[in-house]
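Possible regression after last week's pipeline update?

I re-ran a chain I had predicted before the update to compare outputs. Posting the input and the new output here so someone can diff against the archived version. Not blocking, just want to make sure nothing changed silently.
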Amino acid sequence: MKPRKPRAEPQPRPSIATPELTTTNSGRKPWKKKTPAEAVIAQIERLRESAKAKEEELKQAQRQLQKLDEVLKVLENT
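New output (post-update):
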């Protein structure tokens, strides 16, 4: 028979932070539940911001493509 290894004592679990502790220590605003209408409005605003950022990215890519097309024309003529 093999000798048994002694069991390690279980580690205590960290306690779960209560809302009072997290709001005072982290400096965050207290959570406020949104109504369904407010949630939809917030989602629409996020989507508009995302669309605006993607439009700007598209404009930059189109400008870059236009410049490269001009370079291609010059190269083809030589």
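Follow-up from reviewer: compared with the archived run. The mean pLDDT is 85. Marking as no regression found.
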